[in-house]
């Protein structure tokens, strides 16, 4: 698709790093599948993937995790 941020690049499948912070918990996910703009580098994560990340973040908050680095694994 055409990048909605810069409107001149095209997005291509790639990977992103996503940081989620909630209360005292900080989670950093690596290798999250994303569409990445070849012009400005903006990363776009689809709804299913972001829902998985939020679900994982909520579980981590309940488990009392403070800081954690994870590789993204599709649920
Ligand atoms: Zn762009």
Q: What would you say this structure looks like, in words?
A:
The two termini are 25 Å apart. 9% of the residues are buried. The protein contains 1 helix and 4 strands; from the N terminus they run βββαβ. The longest helix is centred in the last third of the chain and has 16 residues. It has one domain: Ubiquitin-like (UB roll) (Roll), CATH 3.10.20. It is of the alpha+beta class. Strands 1, 2, 3 and 4 form a 4-stranded mixed beta sheet that branches. The protein is elongated and about 45 Å long. The structure holds zinc ion (ZN). The site of zinc ion (ZN) has 8 residues, from loops.
Under the CATH scheme, the architecture is: Roll
Number of domains: 1
Unreliable segments of 5+ consecutive residues = none
Q: Could you tell me the number of beta strands?
A: 4
Number of helices: 1
Strand percentage lies at 35-45%
Report the CATH C-level class.
Alpha Beta
Helix content: 10-25%
> Overall 3D geometry?
elongated
Organism: Candidatus Accumulibacter proximus
Protein name: Type II toxin-antitoxin system MqsA family antitoxin
